[in-house]
UniProtKB/TrEMBL annotation:
UDP-N-acetyl-alpha-D-glucosamine binds at R105, D320, L342. SUPFAM superfamilies: EPT/RTPC-like. Its EC number is 2.5.1.7. The keyword Transferase applies. The gene is murA. It comes from the Bacteria. This is UDP-N-acetylglucosamine 1-carboxyvinyltransferase. Cell wall formation. Adds enolpyruvyl to UDP-N-acetylglucosamine. The active site is at D129. Keywords: Cell cycle, Cell division, Cell shape, Cell wall biogenesis/degradation, Cytoplasm, Peptidoglycan synthesis, Transferase. Belongs to the EPSP synthase family. MurA subfamily. It catalyses: phosphoenolpyruvate + UDP-N-acetyl-alpha-D-glucosamine = UDP-N-acetyl-3-O-(1-carboxyvinyl)-alpha-D-glucosamine + phosphate.
Length: 438
């Protein structure tokens, strides 16, 4: 087990680059399953989740080559991400086991592609995770509307469509990212037209549509609430490598870090248009945000002002940035209300933040954060990826040392975080965690 030791007080300054988005790369890897042959992705983050997804694809019969060896080498990879090559066999296997699915919830996204291509898929039911109960009802309803039979047996979701899938009109109750992706990846090989209404509009969905289009899929409306998909008989691998869309959550983290530490950071590759509300909130907090051709720069010379935030599906404020803004609000001037609408257990993180001296009170899915002058370094525990990043940022502005344990969560989502923060002047290191109790 490892932990991060962070010394508070450094002002972050300089330039970093962002890699491709975790939440796109994992799904693009599943998209590859839709065609026999070789798909190359570029800009893939060197993170544990990508390694787990690679392992899952291997078990389905694919040959997957990562540009790096799994393990500590991840930390020093190119900041803009690495390449992976996936070779998909003519007949992939169709079963995804619990040992991987429970560690990587995103593996549920192989359900749609396997069902569409092989007429069957058996994917372990992922269960809950640290950020709360996460339903699959919309994934299942959508695939059933395309003609699949789905049952739950012995902990697995078993989906079959012996005569193939047929296009249908699907209205999602909520613009779920995962459900939109699974239905989309199935509909591209269904007979006839599928319309997904109230679809998720995230940049990662647009990225998936763009890879699918280069494989021969016919999709209209990417990035809007209505996706219209004309099914085709077969897809072929994209003729050239696909560049993964930049990680807006990583870019947003560095923007918040610059603001909290009264720093000056240019985020190369960060797409300001994908972070409109978040960057606007940082401006309200007092930061100066200047987008340029290939990134944006965030600078700050005062204590941030508290800002209210309400998480919503894209283009609303991203839930994955909520813990970072809560950390910023904890040292801001004034009191703020943080409302979490997507994941019920994301406020568990606030209890760890309180260990650093934050003044926080929660009522259901609202939290009242009263800004304090200073946080005070202490041992804390990362409970999920984004909570971990929030605690690291809190440690950067806390008096003395903060140790963040359970960094395996952070490793799931942030490539080379320690190296990048150090290059901006942060005092942070990775060290063995002497605590014998996991
Ligand atoms: N939901 C249902 N039923 C469904 C699908 C979703 O009730 O069939 C609920 C979920 O329980 C949740 C809400 O709808 O409360 C949002 O879920 P959504 O399906 O939109 O999210 P997801 O696909 O499970 C992805 C990201 C998350 C990110 C959310 C929202 C991946 C691998 N995960 O999750 O990322 O927070 O979209 O933007 O793409 C992270 O990276 O730390 C992370 C959690």
């Amino acid at each position: 087990m490892e932990r991060f030791r962070v010394a508070g007080g450094a002002r972050l300054a300089g330039e970093i680059a962002v890699c491709g988005a975790k939440n796109s790369a994992l799904k693009l890897m599943a998209v590859a399953l839709l065609a026999e042959g070789r798909t190359e992705l570029r800009g893939v983050p060197r993170i544990l989740d990508v390694e787990l997804m690679a392992e899952l694809l291997r078990r389905l019969g694919c040959d997957v080559r990562l540009d790096w060896e799994p393990g500590p080498e991840r930390e020093d990879g190119p900041q803009k991400g690495s390449a992976i090559v996936i070779d998909v066999p003519a007949v992939p296997r169709t079963e995804a086991d619990y040992d991987l699915v429970r560690r990587l919830r995103a593996s549920i996204c192989v359900l749609g592609p396997l069902l569409a291509r092989q007429g069957e898929a058996k994917v372990s039911y992922p269960g809950g995770d640290a950020i709360g109960s996460r339903g699959l009802d919309m994934h299942i309803d959508g695939l059933e509307r395309l003609g699949a039979d789905i049952s739950q047996e012995h902990g697995f979701l078993v989906a079959t469509a012996k005569d193939g899938l047929t296009g249908a009109s699907i209205l999602l109750d909520f613009p779920s990212v995962g459900a939109t992706e699974n239905i989309l990846m199935a509909a591209v090989l269904a007979r006839g037209t599928t319309v997904i209404d109230n679809a998720a509009r995230e940049p990662e969905i647009v990225d998936i549509c763009s890879l699918l289009a280069s494989m021969g899929a016919k999709i209209d409306g990417a990035g809007s609430s209505t996706l219209v998909i004309e099914g085709v008989d077969t897809l072929s691998p994209a003729p050239s490598p696909h560049q993964v869309v930049a990680d807006r959550i990583v870019a947003g983290m560095f923007a918040v870090a610059a603001t909290m530490t009264r720093g000056d950071v240019r985020v190369d590759g960060g797409n300001a248009a994908h972070l409109e509300i978040a960057l606007d909130k940082l401006t309200q907090a007092g930061a100066t945000v200047v987008p340029d051709e290939t990134g944006f720069r965030v600078s700050m010379d005062r204590r941030p002002r508290a800002v209210d935030i309400i998480t919503l599906p894209y283009p609303g404020f991203a839930t994955d940035l909520q813990p970072l803004f809560a950390a910023m609000n904890s040292i801001a001037e004034g009191t703020s209300m943080v409302t979490e609408n997507l994941f019920d257990a994301r406020f568990v993180f606030l209890q760890e933040l309180a260990r650093l001296g934050a003044s926080v009170r929660t009522e259901g899915h609202h939290a009242i954060v009263r800004g304090v002058e200073k946080l005070s370094g202490a041992p804390v525990r990362a409970t999920d990826i984004r909570a971990g990043a929030g605690l690291v940022l809190a440690g950067l502005v806390a008096d003395g040392h903060t140790t963040v344990s359970d960094v395996r969560h952070i490793d799931r989502g942030y490539q080379g975080l320690v190296t990048q923060l150090r290059s901006l002047g942060a005092q942070i290191e990775r060290e063995p965690d002497p605590d014998p109790y996991p």
